[in-house]
Design a protein that fits this description.
17 helices; 29% helix; single chain; Nucleotidyltransferase, domain 5; 550 residues; alpha/beta
Length: 550
């Protein structure tokens, strides 16, 4: 989506990296005789950071504002710092806020007083008040006059509202253009930070599913790593209006909210994380990286459902396809391993994890895939059913009175391997249980591997030849029994069993292994999952920054 302000994202990104030490001063400018002068911007609006009306009659500053001001938050016009007339910049109690001082390395001084507020985590924060004083404070004085302590002094301010922002003056750490990657799922949040050369600086799997605690988890992570210059978010579904990875602004955020019900397990929690990250890091670009973009050029015959034209036109029924970030990464690694250009490859990629799908790639482009309008269609998955006879669902509603909510919950959370086995959706558990004689586990694995073979064969039908079969995803990289059972029954495609079993540690270190060993068989490769790295690379591309990882 185009920048509504007509500015070059690359220039904004680079300016952010260059000017990190200069930001965080008063949005309204320097004090004059102890008073805050009116804004020098050109937009005659009254804004507040908390949604409350601003009592100061001034214009909102713009990006062309004179030196000495911090400039607006990313993608938001300059915001009113909520400093009301007649109030003091000091907390009631007489103790001034402790100013942030800088050590020689540009980091915040350890000499600065820490907040003793019992209602806020022990985390060093920068706060802006209306006069440009910057200190180490709790997140925000309660607008409803909750009393708490700031720098050891009781604070009962009801007039001044403090806006918390993550510190951004660690410019020596952010000049490299570190990219923060956030990958939120229904029950997990993976956080990673990448340097400009693609090196993973740090990562963390959140202890709680995305929710109210996501901000705290992210805040704790950011307190331990170099400051990021951009954030990349994995968003599973782009909907019909976004066909490329894009900067997140208010219109884009609204479009994502509108399509959340097409992938409720993924998009809804991801948006919670997007909102938390934009609140904590408002002055750097946030980029939405979509799983659907890889499939945006699906041929008409592959993306079209055989339903009336009115359904397709009015309701937007069509195939989108998913796991695109994983496929993008795996395709590049496969081309490197085979020593062939991407645009001269015809391969079937199979992503097997919590969600499972297959994709046919011809000359660098997705031409068919098993997932559809939603990530529920296609292969049997860990807890999702995969494809079902639509008539069966109609029958369940008519004959047994199952509600839409019951069908939704069961098909998304209680089906797949879990529904078949009755015990687990994890193939590792099921392989062990099958070895111990568990018939339900054996049936679950047999149904799963047959579903995968069907998917692979149907994808091969969209190709002229099969140059390689590629496995990725958690099951694909870490379950040799499943790979063997799939490949040993695909001789019709020239794929053979008797696969090598690389050590997982070696695979993670090297990123890829070729595992076929039969003479004149189709190459079979395993690629370590690379969605996180791909998000970092796509984020840099959106910002026009060179990707040094290739």
């Amino acid at each position: 989506m185009d920048d509504p302000d007509g500015e070059d994202p690359r220039e904004q990104y680079e300016e952010h990296v260059r000017s990190a030490p200069a930001r965080r001063r008063c949005v309204l400018g320097e004090r004059v005789d102890g008073r805050i002068p009116p804004c020098r911007g050109s937009l005659g609006k009254r804004r507040s950071t908390t949604g409350l009306p601003c009592s100061r009659d001034h214009a909102v500053p713009t990006r062309t504002q004179t030196a000495g001001t911090c400039g607006p938050s990313w993608r938001r016009p300059g915001v009113c710092p909520l400093f009301r007339p007649g109030t003091s910049p000091r907390p009631a109690g007489g103790t001034a806020p402790p100013h942030r001082q800088a050590d020689t390395d540009g980091a915040p001084s350890r000499r600065a007083s820490r907040s003793t507020c019992p209602t806020w985590p022990k985390r060093r924060h920068r706060l802006e008040d209306g006069g440009g004083d910057i200190g180490v404070f709790p997140t925000q004085a309660d607008p409803e006059s909750r009393a708490h302590s700031v720098a050891g002094a009781p604070c009962r301010r009801t007039q001044v509202h403090w806006r918390c922002v993550m510190r951004a003056d660690r410019s020596h750490e952010s000049r490299d253009g570190h990219v923060l990657v956030l990958d939120a799922g229904s029950s997990s949040l993976h956080i990673a930070l990448f340097a400009a050369d693609g090196e993973r600086v740090a990562d963390r799997d959140a202890s709680e599913p995305p929710g109210p605690g996501a901000a705290a988890e992210l805040r704790n992570f950011l307190s331990e790593v170099p400051a990021p210059a951009a954030v990349g978010h994995r968003i599973v579904h782009s909907g019909p209006h976004l066909t490329g990875h894009t900067l997140i602004d208010t219109p884009v955020r609204a479009l994502l909210e509108d399509v959340a019900d097409l992938a409720p397990l993924h998009v809804t929690p991801a948006l919670r994380v997007v909102d938390a990250a934009r609140e904590l890091l408002p002055d750097i670009p946030h980029v939405a990286c979509f799983d659907t973009v890889f499939h945006k050029d699906l041929p008409a015959q592959a993306r079209t459902y055989a339903v009336p034209e009115r359904w397709r036109a009015e309701y937007g029924l069509r195939r989108y396809g998913f796991h695109g970030l994983s496929y993008s990464w795996a395709l590049q690694r496969t081309a490197q391993a085979l020593g062939r250009p991407v645009d001269n490859l015809q391969v079937v990629l199979v992503h097997m994890g919590g969600g499972c799908s297959a994709c046919a790639v011809r000359n660098g482009h997705s031409v068919d895939t098993t997932m559809g309008l939603t990530p529920l269609e296609g292969l049997v998955m860990s807890r999702r059913s995969g494809s079902l006879d639509p008539g069966a669902l109609l029958w369940l509603q008519r004959r047994h009175g199952l509600s839409t909510a019951e069908l939704d919950d069961t098909l998304h959370r209680h089906s797949g391997l879990l529904g078949l086995s009755g015990t687990s959706g994890d193939t590792r558990d099921l392989v062990r249980a099958r070895a111990e004689g568990d018939a339900a586990a054996a049936l679950a694995l047999a149904t799963f591997t047959l579903s995968c073979r069907r998917g692979i064969a149907s994808m091969a039908a969209s190709l002229d030849r099969l140059d390689a079969l590629v496995f990725t995803g958690e099951i694909g990289e870490d379950q040799p029994e499943v790979r063997e059972e799939i490949c040993s029954a695909l001789t019709v495609l020239g794929v053979r069993g008797g696969l090598l079993v690389p050590e997982l540690e070696d695979l993670m270190r090297e990123g890829l292994r070729r595992i076929d060993q039969a003479v004149r068989s189709v190459p079979v490769l395993v690629v370590a999952t690379g969605e996180i790295q791909q998000i970092a690379a796509e984020t840099r591309r959106v910002l026009g920054v060179a990707d040094r990882t290739r």
